[in-house]
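Dear colleague,

Thank you for sharing your sequence with our group. We've completed the structure prediction you requested, and as agreed, I am returning the results in plain text so they can be pasted directly into your records. Please verify that the sequence below matches your submission; if there's any discrepancy, let me know and we will rerun it promptly.
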Amino acid sequence: MKLNRFNHSRRGSESAEMIIALPVVLLVIFAGFEYGWAALKSIQMDHAARVGARVAALSGSTSADVENKVNTALLNSGIVGATLTINPQDPSTAPLGTPITVLIETNYSNVQLLGLSRMMPLPAVLKGRASMVKEPEP
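Please find the predicted structure tokens below.
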């Protein structure tokens, strides 16, 4: 059986193409995972802020109630090291109809998936924000 010269020389060029293309393809795939993860964590932070704002809007709720609910939601999402800001600071003293804002912030390095944030343009800080109006007593 005689080897075809074209097939024999083609094998070397396919290997060279693979060596060049594989890292690029893998980087694109892993970048997709990292961007998807960042979007997921951002949505989870918005959800935690919404949970906190719902509690803050209820009559008689204190900032400790809001903080407990937000921390539980963040813990369930696997988010650690977040800071919470409530405006006004004590929702129990806010008059009816006042908008109450809950803001949560964390460094992306606290929640990153693969650690590609140094190589990709990802946000340095993820934020979750929600506002609700103070409700009257039931």
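Summary note from our side: The two ends are 90 Å apart (CA to CA).

Kind regards,
the structure core
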